[in-house]
Design brief:
The complex is a heterodimer of chains A (207) and B (218). Chain A is an alpha/beta fold. Chain A has helices spanning 44-52, 84-94, 101-106, 122-136, 152-167, 196-204; strands spanning 6-15, 18-28, 33-37, 59-64, 69-72, 140-144, 171-175, 185-188. A 5-stranded parallel beta sheet of chain A has the order 5-6-7-3-8, sandwiched between helices. A 3-stranded antiparallel beta sheet of chain A has the order 2-1-4, with helices on one face. The longest helix of chain B has 30 residues, at 87-116. In chain B, helix 2 runs antiparallel to helix 3 and helix 7 packs antiparallel against helix 8. The chains are: A alpha/beta (207), B mainly alpha (218).
């Protein structure tokens, strides 16, 4: 067994002062993909943000090599006034990589490279946002609803990219509602919901 | 850092807003004051240092609330926070970009606008010098205020209230240096104090602002 790229040990995370998940333990090895499932509000985004380091875990340990995680949120982080190529080149430079051609080709954006981002459709923007992952050069992808506003062809494109990333020794953690056809395990996050009794006890200590 | 700087400057120029607005506002203040105060040249010469400094300061304030807000809204701030760049250097870079697109142009046009207010010839050197030394502090203080208010809807009002008192020392010493130069007095002390404020803010505030951003991103 190779050393895992990411491992969580009984992690609890909260959103807006409420503990939404607790006792989350998982490991992610090279080549492995894990799909997070669960109804809206079950804490998928919170878990991904905690793993990405945007918010601290309330309890528990998150082990990952420093700067190994690339996070993609609901928002793509594109600048409307910049062209496709400029947006991608910026992120590539920030992460210290240079080759944006592979990323452009993987998401069929090469024909749009000179187009300003505000003139892109929602699906094209999303593809550009996902292409950013390829130029980060990071091993673990933490993706929050990556397929929103993508058509079936683009979803297939995205699934191919994830497969390529896994083959190259990367790992991916995806929160998604649709089946990507990946060879991935599924983790239902609703099982980590704190029970009512624990929630009650938690509240009492603050009253 | 340089790429981020290039991006921010390119954005400021392309979207037009920040870049031209501060200059246009400064121009309007300086052009309108003589109409309001009246055309007596002695009065204008006496108030010119103060008006030029206040105008530059308010022009600086104008574009501050967008400093982090645009990046926050389109999600790039979160992505930047997970990038290899430390948040401290992100804040510093943002402040530098803000200075290059507002403080520097303001400094460069201030001598030209000084003519409209009949600023005494002796004061032009001090005006350019103090603005060049003082406006970086305005950008850095503003970046700190912007990082505190980044998550708030309509944070602009709170931002101005937070930042204005912090701007006062720079304004006092900056305008004082120009006034003293206009009267032919020694200006070294206020100029040094302006420089000291700028150096102090550049040294401390990137860390404070980065801490504020971390809290706001949670």
């Amino acid at each position: 067994m190779t050393t895992p790229l990411l491992s969580l040990k009984s992690v609890a995370c909260s959103r807006g002062g409420f503990t939404v998940l607790q006792d989350v333990s998982l490991t992610l090895s090279p080549g492995q993909a894990l799909v997070l499932k669960g109804p809206n509000g079950s804490g998928k985004t919170t878990l991904l943000r905690t793993i990405a380091g945007l918010q601290p875990a309330e309890r528990g340990d998150i082990d990952a090599a420093s700067e190994s995680i690339a996070y993609a949120a609901h928002a793509d982080g594109l600048k409307a006034a910049l062209t496709v190529e400029e947006n991608l080149t910026f992120w590539a430079a920030l992460f210290g990589t240079h080759d944006i051609e592979a990323a452009l080709n993987a998401f069929d954006l090469a024909g749009l490279r000179g187009r300003r981002a505000h003139a892109l459709s929602a699906g094209q923007k999303r593809r550009l946002g996902l292409a950013r992952l390829l130029v980060t050069g990071r091993k673990v992808w933490a993706l929050d609803e990556p397929t929103v506003s993508l058509d079936t062809r683009a979803v297939a494109m995205f699934a191919d990219v994830v497969r390529g990333h896994l083959t190259a020794g990367g790992a991916a953690l995806l929160a998604t509602h649709i089946d990507l056809g990946l060879d991935a395990e599924t983790l239902d996050v609703s099982q980590f919901k704190p029970s009512e009794a624990q929630l009650g006890a938690f509240d009492e200590s603050f009253l | 850092m340089i790429r981020l700087l290039q991006r921010d400057i390119r954005l400021a120029i392309r979207s037009g807003g920040g870049f031209g607005l501060a200059l246009a506002f400064f121009l309007m203040v300086v052009v309108l004051v003589p109409f309001g105060v009246g055309p007596e040249r002695e009065i204008l010469a006496r108030i010119a240092p103060g008006v030029l400094w206040v105008g530059a300061l308010l022009a600086c304030l104008l574009s501050l609330d967008r400093l982090f807000a645009t990046d926050y809204e389109d999600g790039s701030l979160e992505l930047l926070a997970t990038a290899p760049l430390p948040l401290e250097s992100l804040v510093l870079t943002k402040a530098v970009a803000h200075w290059l697109t507002t403080g520097l142009p303001l400094t460069l046009v201030a001598p030209v606008l000084g003519v409209l207010l009949n600023l005494p010839v002796a004061a032009y050197g001090a005006l350019t010098l103090t603005l060049a030394l003082g406006t970086p502090a305005l950008s850095m203080l503003g970046a700190f205020g912007a990082s505190l208010t980044v998550g708030l809807k309509r944070g602009g009002l709170l931002l101005s209230l937070l930042v204005l008192p912090l701007y006062v020392p720079t304004l006092i010493f900056g305008a004082d240096a120009v006034r003293r130069a206009a009267e032919g007095l020694e200006t070294t002390t206020p100029v040094l104090l302006v420089a000291a404020i700028t150096l102090g803010t550049l040294a401390v505030l990137p860390f404070a602002a980065a801490a504020a951003l971390r809290v706001n991103l949670r």
